[in-house]
Known about the structure:
- The chain is an all-alpha fold.
- Helix content is about 65%, strand content about 0%.
- It is built from 9 helices and 2 strands; from the N terminus they run ααααββααααα.
Amino acid sequence: MDAHLQAGIAVYNAGRYHAAHDAWEDYWLDLGSGDDERFLHGLIQFTAVVHHAKNENWSGAQGLAESAGEYLADLTPEYRGVDLDSVRSFLERVAADPEAVEWDDPPRLTHGGEAIGYDDLDFDATAVAAEVLAEADGYDEDAIPHAIEYARDELDERGEGRFVGLLFAFVRDSEHRPVVYHRLRDHVQRERQKDDDVAGLFD
């Protein structure tokens, strides 16, 4: 869960409020009832609150703020390292009057007391964030999972490599993300071609 949780927090803190929930949703859908389910359900709705408010959908933001607050109400103040007291306080203000809230600077999510960003993510969380950003920005989603697979092989063999470096760059360097993606995709295509050529020898 930590990789999904931290990836979503970093995506949210980068201002990608709508995309952030994708880091949590697949994991959340597989959970049964319990504190973790309520926690992620509340965070998903929290990001939707900010997304709707940014688009001045005040009624949508207000209704989701009430619902998200209910999901998070009974959890500990620092559930799984996230400062929920700040989140709940913010949701209460939105539920009371969303138009009175300062939306130019929505609250940042913290984990372990830090407002983590892309640079703070380890490989597993970076892999989650890469898939989220690729989907949100309309990149060919097929290339990223293959890049992650090749990167994991590199980590197993020598602890680093071009796929590992490019995946980190794809997530961390938003300004050059399109260029990094094309390099990543080209490397994936070459590796897949080599795999196919080797497989063909034994057909």
